[in-house]
Amino acid sequence: QNWKKTMESASNKTLFYDKLKFCRICLDSDNTEDLIKSPCDCRGSLSNVHISCMEKWFNTSSRTSCDICHTEMKTSKVRRSFLETFGKELSKPVLDWSKVILAILMVPLNYLGRIFGYWSYDSRPDSFCNILIVLFLGYFLCKLLFFTYIRWRTDYRIVWTASKDGSE
Of 50, 140, 144, which Cα lies nearest the Cα of 102? Predict the structure, then answer.
């Protein structure tokens, strides 16, 4: 008799957890209108995901299969926009030694140009240093754009190709 009550209680809890609606990736239960049934074989509370969370997980993990049931999902690779790739390049916290060397060289060169310009009574005392600064900055801008273009050609994001209602 006790065993029956325990089994009924366990099955009721299972039904309760199956009815809970939350995204299994972000665990958000407030935004349930965007939830879909996951296209994998997971059931119960693990079967609900947001499309945006699933695509973010694909791109973060570089996998296109479910991490629980290992079902392969239908996905495709879409090239990111150049501006998105450029923004990622600008936000990288990489110490570029060429920029440090540029700063170390340009400050003394600028002051030397000003000193020699004043000695020669030139109307534009620091024009040589200004030209050097523009050339160096132009070089680094071209370098940044060139390497961003190279990375952009191989920078893809993975998107889920099934429809929004979960059918493929």
Answer: 140
- Judge whether residue 36 has pLDDT over 70: yes
Check whether domain 2-73 has CATH 3.30.40.10, yes or no:
yes
| Sign of the torsion angle spanned by Cα atoms 17, 19, 25, 27 | negative
Predicted TM-score (pTM) of the model is 0.46
pLDDT digits (tens, 9 = 90+) for 54-75: 888 877 877 778 877 888 878 7
Locate the domains of the chain by residue range. 2-73, 83-152
Task: Write down the residue that tokens 């299994």 correspond to.
Answer: 24
Cα angle value 13/23/9 (rounded, 5°) = 0
Phi, psi of 78 (to 5 degrees): -120, 130
Q: Note every long-range contact of 95-100, with CB atoms under 8 Å and residues 24 or more positions apart, other chains counting.
A: 98/140, 98/143, 99/140
